[in-house]
Amino acid sequence: MTVPREMPEKWPRVRGPGGAEEERRVRANAREYNEKFQYASNCIKTSKYNIVTFLPVNLFEQFQEVANTYFLFLLILQLIPQISSLSWFTTIVPLVLVLTITAVKDATDDYFRHKSDNQVNNRQSQVLISGVLRQEQWMNVRVGDIIKLENNQFVAADLLLLSSSEPHGLCYIETAELDGETNMKVRQAIPVTSELGDTSKLALFDGEVICEPPNNKLDKFGGTLYWKENKYPLSNQNMLLRGCVLRNTEWCFGLVIFAGPDTKLMQNSGRTKFKRTSIDRLMNTLVLWIFGFLVCMGVILAIGNAIWEHEVGVCFQIYLPWDEGVHSAFFSGFLSFWSYIIILNTVVPISLYVSVEVIRLGHSYFINWDKKMYCAKRRTPAEARTTTLNEELGQVEYIFSDKTGTLTQNIMVFSKCSVNGHSYGDVQDMLGHKAELGERPEPVDFSFNPLADPRFQFWDPSLLEAVKLGDPHVHEFFRLLSLCHTVMSEEKSEGELFYKAQSPDEGALVTAARNFGFVFRSRTPKTITVHELGRAITYQLLAILDFNNIRKRMSVIVRSPEGKIRLYCKGADTILLERLHPTNQDLTNVTTDHLNEYAGEGLRTLVLAYKDLEESYYEDWSERLHRASGAPEAREDRLARLYDEVEHDMMLLGATAIEDKLQQGVPETIAILTLANIKIWVLTGDKQETAVNIGYSCKMLTDDMTEVFVVTGHTVLEVREELRKAREKMMDASRSMGNGFSYQEKLSSTKLTSVLEAIAGEYALVINGHSLAHALEADMEVEFLETACACKAVICCRVTPLQKAQVVELVKKYKKAVTLAIGDGANDVSMIKTAHIGVGISGQEGIQAVLASDYSFSQFKFLQRLLLVHGRWSYLRMCKFLCYFFYKNFAFTMVHFWFGFFCGFSAQTVYDQYFITLYNIVYTSLPVLAMGVFDQDVPEQRSMEYPKLYEPGQLNLLFNKREFFICIAQGIYTSVLMFFIPYGVFADATRDDGAQLADYQSFAVTVATSLVIVVSVQIGLDTGFWTAINHFFIWGSLAAYFAILFAMHSDGLFQMFPNQFRFVGNAQNTLAQPTVWLTIALTTVVCVMPVVAFRFLKLDLKPELSDTVRYTQLVRKKQKTQHRCMRRVGRVGSRRSGYAFSHQEGFGELIMSGKNMRLSSLALSGFAARPSASWIETLRKKKGGEGSTACSPSGAPDKTLKV
């Protein structure tokens, strides 16, 4: 191969000093040359273990957990005879059980990963070796190989497309595995290689590619092909990425550039940040506290042992000699410390962590199985994609939502348009007047057009008349829509067209042009064929100027059959209106009014323009474009400058307006979530007018609000001033409200971080992307956050994906509140990953949001059920589980502490060692699991009807440090009674035959039986919702205790294992004594009665909302009154969801940044004068219970929920 002299000097090496790859050199058909760079093979490995490494690696990973290491440490202590007061199996049995369960789960997961890897690695591919195509497994493909793909085959590696069966080296691919989109995309080989169609020519191809190193950018690729003394620029349009599927192309050849782990698909499969709940973090803190408490108890008992041995034990050396090696009371105390650490370790049992995971798994299945969250239309169930965050669903305070496809359906309908200053699309009655809302005559008849889409509907016949009358502006308008796009057309039979568009907007626009007689029929890389009113016309496609996040527009340059060169452009109004020729001023003013009118109706707007180009200018511009395309440095910047140059002084054609309908149930869901004290922020890329109107449509903004603040500043000073004025207005209005309280009173009564959060009145904040960029700067972010958090609703317009994540991170950083982000597109992924909880909507924009999410479903309205039912129940169940678990283990363990003062601090256990082993595994595990999985305080209908029930989770009231100490105190109280009542009774009690009752074994059985009965009664009191499973587990555990107890104390086991089962016959003798049963009954009553009395008094004197709801339900059942359904009244008006047009670089990525138009006078006046929206107030009153509809002194409805 001859390398040209102009090969850049900046590529002397492939790898940098640290071993990182700086660039990639690949030579075709030269395996030996490529292998010296040690590029990765095409074998992928997502599995973690193999047969040899599984056991050591898995155990190493499991012992990374502090809890497992702690229990291993205890096991080692128990193997030391001098300090072990318990048999080793009391710890090893539960530890091995936990390790085994986790290992089986990990092994199962890894087996499926192995299976998937083998399936992929063993796929067959045709590789060109020595001029012959050979079948090779994917794992044997190497960088530099040329491989052949056939129709419907997966792409084996990241390939440079060399040639294909289609003209001009064109091929079509589907990228569902990469970005979830099923629409076809086009790729093209560079002209110099597109002629290499047979294996003999390809075998002689020895071109060398020098390109960027492996990275995860799916939409970008930069490189250069050096071949035959020439160099050719390469871009993403020439690449076929691993994971794509070849479609509608018989065959193609490609050169392997990246293989295996270096492919962009694998580079994007990085691990998502592990999310932990606030309860997890609290539990870790509490476990450390408990361990500290355990050490303190061990120290106290060790000191007691040393003193006892020094003062008393020394006198009994003949009867109680010290163990071998113990020569002093101090050393005896030291050994006693470790013995008590072993005995008392059950305050933090290993079964706690297993039980938590089992409960979370159960909650996840409940979400997956919920038929009320199943979308029959799309056959999509709700899915819990993680099991670690369920209880945090019950603590959400802030929801960050995308708009398009999340609040709206993302199904676009061409609704209205403005052409040459004339607006089309209003529904007209029979007399030609504008019809009232709800009056719809027959749609326009498109039967004249045999290629029309029968599903398309339009209601204004005057636009079709203008087409038929030959209006040149209307013709040019639809000609632009039929030419300026990236849609692919399939014609399965004559006249049966199917459009494959990446964005629904583009599909709607091209379909509209199709129905009005300008039918996009087919395309090649250099031509576009359109049927204009039945006449086939082929335009030469000279250039496509792509969308990107900065340009916010797309242009094509075409040559008509007459030879005239024209640029057609469509894009966001904020961008295109600045690039028009000055002679368009009058038309611009009229069109701007139409745009504001459309945006006021919540429609997505787009401006269309054109420009005629001189042949000489185009030739010069095209030459400069070619040079910029081949530039090794700053290629994108140079292209952007050339695009910007040609897209000036354009002539305005008109504007389009597309309707994106609101999803069913969105207003009701937002209103009810607002009543649950959840603040909803909408982060959208739409223009401001559209966002405001979507806010009104979904009841985020209401006419009852005190004020809606709009921040549109373009500088730091302007934004700071607007935020300051908003805060001042809120504070002034609150001072003037005479509601009988002052700021100080409100501030002291809540955990507010700012006086702003104590304001009276309801406010909303609307801020655009430019202003938000300034507001998120370090010196202003706190001011912005305080202002926003004082508002009931916040809408951020024209925001980028990065800004979405920054807003979420800002709230997480300063508010310490649980955040939830919900979206449906790739532009929402960063926000979803940043929030505590990410929810993906499986909609029209692929599945990237779903793949990045923690929970997914198909409609926004299901969020209400996810939070208010599943989230609230999960939080309630987990809190009750933890409270009870710590209680029962402290009650169990602290008995050893009290016993230590009566046994000479000798580390003697109260219970039989088998009871200690089985207590947390058998006797008390299943009842608490049943409560943790099935418990409810109120039925699901009441959870939805009374959103205020959600607030305890937000305030973290059910399990916190205070509740933990209450549980611990109750456990210690129970342990005191559990030990001292039997101890006091046994001191003087006798058997039926007059013999002394007091012996160690009888005492152990009595205390153990009392403990099992007391904790069983306690969980019965704690259970709020009884099922057959609860009954079976609670009473079954009691029965299992007695069955195992009698079996352990039987003669048979003693005869087989006399050294292990020493309590022979004890249970039968002890439990036959009435005194023992009276003692057990007394202990149970004394332990339980204070709890019953306290709960009764609390229920009577200070009931919680859930108590009141349950009482109301009981009263209604008794009275047999039919529950009234909530009547929902929608807001009257024509406001719909809205959007400002945006698209993707190349094939339509949503644009989320850019300048924003100020609110039109029409939209601003709508803030002050709107018909009253009474829906929320009706809902609040409906929730107000029987007759409690209190109003404030000023006459305004009371916003608080009464029950």
TrEMBL record:
Keywords: ATP-binding, Lipid transport, Magnesium, Membrane, Metal-binding, Nucleotide-binding, Translocase, Transmembrane, Transmembrane helix, Transport. It is a multi-pass membrane protein. The keyword Transmembrane helix applies. Its EC number is 7.6.2.1. The active site is at 402 (4-aspartylphosphate intermediate). GO terms for molecular function: ATP binding; ATP hydrolysis activity; magnesium ion binding; phosphatidylcholine flippase activity. The chain crosses the membrane at residues 86-104, 286-308, 328-354, 881-902, 914-934, 964-983, 1003-1021, 1033-1056, 1076-1097. Residues 26-92 form the P-type ATPase N-terminal domain. ATP binds at residues 402-404, 506, 547, 570, 604, 684-686, 798, 804, 827-828. Residues 1-23, 1183-1203 are annotated as: Disordered. Residues 1-12 have a biased composition (Basic and acidic residues). PROSITE patterns: ATPASE_E1_E2. It holds the Pfam family PhoLip_ATPase_C. SUPFAM superfamilies: Calcium ATPase, transduction domain A, Calcium ATPase, transmembrane domain M, HAD-like, Metal cation-transporting ATPase, ATP-binding domain N. GO terms for biological process: Golgi organization; phospholipid translocation. Residues 850-1103 form the P-type ATPase C-terminal domain. Mg(2+) binds at residues 402, 404, 824, 828. Its cofactor is Mg(2+). Coiled coil: none annotated. Belongs to the cation transport ATPase (P-type) (TC 3.A.3) family. Type IV subfamily. NCBIfam families: ATPase-Plipid, ATPase_P-type. This is Phospholipid-transporting ATPase. The gene is ATP8B2.
